[in-house]
Amino acid sequence: EPEVTQTPSHQVTQMGQEVILRCVPISNHLYFYWYRQILGQKVEFLVSFYNNEISEKSEIFDDQFSVERPDGSNFTLKIRSTKLEDSAMYFCASTTRGVASNSPLHFGNGTRLTVT
Amino acid sequence: DAKTTQPPSMDCAEGRAANLPCNHSTISGNEYVYWYRQIHSQGPQYIIHGLKNNETNEMASLIITEDRKSSTLILPHATLRDTAVYYCIVRDDKIIFGKGTRLHILP
User: Fold this and answer.
1) For A25-64, how does the pLDDT look when each residue is reduced to its tens digit (9 = 90+)?
2) CB of A93 within 8 Å of any CB in chain B?
3) CB contact under 8 A, B95 and A91
4) Residue B61 belongs to what H/E stretch?
């Protein structure tokens, strides 16, 4: 069964450094998402992406964050200057259809980002 | 914010049916009810979804009340591997997670 893959599984970075988290969504999917989960807390929506542009973003997704689909297969999340509070699991998700649809989101197993 | 209410935790004996309730009294006519689970910080795993009718797949059954204000996820024969946090989600465009129900399967 096709799945969403994320790399790396664990990333350690120093405060102030830039980090790029990578995702390969399921190949025929058109809608892409990033979520994060701080240890012990809820899974939080960050951003949705369709047709090479952001569809919606949460208040967490500030100017330090950006997303890109650099080619036909990858979907990336960049954090420009990491802060300690960016330490979390970051999950990528994809689906075939978007708004009010009955198409489930499929999630990857996440990248654990540790900012020191 | 999540539009659903779930009990924070539940226990179920191994081999028995686990029935997880969810209230979604403000659901609107075109919103689907989705269930996901998360096993120990893995990525959320899709289980099942429905609009009005009851649904069944290889993992679970979903029972939605006629007024659509509540639903129940049924795991017919729970195993230790079903220990997880289960999320009931009313979906418009994106998935918004609440706190879910932490299901403990007791040996």
Assistant:
1) 999 899 999 999 999 999 999 999 999 999 999 999 999 9
2) yes
3) no
4) strand B61-64
